[in-house]
Amino acid sequence: MTVTLEDIRDAAKLLDGQIIKTPCTVSRTLSEISGATVYVKFENQQFTASFKDRGALVKMATLDDAQRAKGVIAMSAGNHAQAVAYHAQRLGIPATIVMPQGAPTVKVKNTRRFGAKVILTGETIDDAAVAARQIAADEGLTFVHPYDDEKVMTGQGTVGLEMMECAPDLDAIIVPIGGGGLIGGIAIAAKAINPDIEIYGVEAALFPSMYQSMQGLTVKAGGRTIADGIAVKTPGKVTMPVIKEHVEDIMLVTEDQLEHGVQMYLEIEKTVAEGGGAAPLAALLAHPDRFSGKKVGLVLTGGNIDSRIVSAVIEHGLVRDGRMVRLRIEISDAPGTLGLIAQIIGKCDANIIEVYHQRAFSSLPVKLAELDIVVETLDRDHVADVVSHLTAAGFTVKPVGPDASSLTT
Asked: Do 372 and 290 belong together in one domain?
């Protein structure tokens, strides 16, 4: 089978009424920031909070009665797991899901909530795949691959179909790449409708497996990434030829850029994006010149992210933007000094949220002490203003933390 536009249209008919036809809307603020006209496809609004509902349902809908009775098995970092579990439950099919041991808690919990048997094993999705294949062979289960399957790719392609219906004059679509099922399906649909549209893929820099494979390089991938849903070491054999034919380029984004993407979706669109879901926005913001003046579609693939990660991303973002800063101040260890510093900071309209008073662990003489103060500010200019006022009062002050030196320059 070779996936065609008609196959994807047939999949759309099958999915009609069984999944959410998610919004695809213009973001005025992201457009102003990036210089492009930005459309966001909100796949985080699916019931399981990711696009994976589409391919999983299309695949399982094609199973015969014997296959349904035996059951299905899938390996996943979380989104495909939830989609398979949910739709298997709806269709009355027993489901077993193999997930990496480091899979986000929210994804493991939701998968179990949908009635699937969950097995946690291995460090990566590739490790989980080995275990899942063995269990499938031992128990006679149908393997529902998260990306390397033409039926799955057909279902994922309906995202592209909907985007082209919403904005037929798109110049480009930016899509996250894990194994390549989503971008493969979208590329087939979009290019069949408009051969001039450009399709761009995005991978986490720690897991550049498709990029390296396309370049003929040895795949070297691994590390702790916020984009767990696209942390794939083994690209799809079915998807790779499609990507080679239809995708213009694959961009790599750093962890800091991914975090910034998650933060931007929270603050601007008031929506939750997981790391992989924020990858297209991260790539757009990292390469504004490439997309300036164009109509660009971003696929926000999912919103399944642990609340602890969201909290950390917000804090990192506040520090990165100069809206929260730690100031290290040398002070005389005398009564009233702390009060004076608090008064100066208050007059600058900044807010003190934490104070650390160092005596024993400082390298300063005994008559002096170090004071670390965490302060909420408006931006980097506000930080510079606070430091300037403290310095004018005779204190030695320096920001502490990543990129701290740039906060006062």
From this structure: no
